[in-house]
Design brief:
The chain is mainly alpha-helical. The chain has three helices and no strands.
Length: 92
């Protein structure tokens, strides 16, 4: 039989962290931006319903994924513009 020690409260169980929030963050760091944004949005929805932890992780996954996606698009546009402007047209 276990006895409780007076003056000490029972330690509450740690609340579960949403797995999709973690996956969203990891995937965004790896560069799979669209997938990270989608998983982050799904994780936020699940967190709202279940009350799990991980809201910050899901938001970080969405933000990192969105910023990376926008920077990637800008890089592609700049590359195309530079490539188009550096070609010379030779007429004979």
């Amino acid at each position: 039989m276990t006895e409780s020690t007076p003056g000490y409260a029972a330690v509450p169980a740690a609340q579960k962290t949403n797995v999709l929030a973690i996956v969203s963050l990891v995937i965004s760091i790896l560069g799979f931006n669209v997938i990270a944004i989608i998983l982050g949005a799904i994780a936020l929805n699940q967190i709202k319903k279940t009350g799990e932890n991980g809201r910050g992780l899901a938001l970080a996954g969405i933000i990192i994924g969105a910023i990376s996606l926008v920077l990637g698009i800008i890089l592609i546009i700049v590359s195309v513009v530079i490539a188009a402007s550096s070609t010379t047209i030779t007429t004979y």
